[in-house]
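Internal tracking record. Fields below are filled automatically when a chain is submitted to the structure queue. Please do not edit lines marked as system-generated. If the sequence contains nonstandard residues, flag them in the REMARKS field before resubmitting.
Queue: standard
Priority: normal
Entity type: single polypeptide chain
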Amino acid sequence: MRKAIIIVGGWEGHDPKGVSQRIEEILVKCNFNVSIYDNLQVFEDIELLKETDLIVPIWTMGEISETQCKNVSEAVASGTGIAGVHGGMCDAFRNSVLWQFITGGNWVAHPGNDSVTYTVTIKDRSHELTKDINDFKVTSEQYYMHVDPAIEILATTHFPIADGYHITNKSVEMPVAWTKMWGKGRVYFNSVGHSANLFDIKEFHKMVELGFSWASRK
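SYSTEM-GENERATED OUTPUT FOLLOWS
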């Protein structure tokens, strides 16, 4: 059985406990043995991280030490997967550029806050991680991201919808879900997931199930 660890904490506004419960349910369904930690000390155990098949951070903002982040980097480079959603992975540890390099992007804004209705557009329905998944609408935070040009984009959304200084620029297609590699390790991210109820969207739920399973060590 594959082993996953979920790290739960950070800013409470992203419902880390509720989101972790939904992700744990998905991982158990996919035959993972799941361990949950409410602190970052587990990142100090490099051997445990290297023995783990999947790391799932659910930790918006906060701070990670240089040693902790380096250990995550080394574990993922050795083959451990890392996967996450929303700010729990790509608005975690704003002080760490290495974390941003590993994960492939970082949140910078969500114009309109959590009341924006936007469409998630699947880029390639023949891809193994988006196969038979249709475009879907979300009412939540629409994440404006700064992203690594090396990512493989699975789904996008369009800006602008809500008002803001960004609207004087051209319309842009913003990545919502992507994959990338970090050494031998697979990375998966999906910017949906502000709150636990969004996992009731069947298309998003399926994307997380496929993406997290894909990211785990093979």
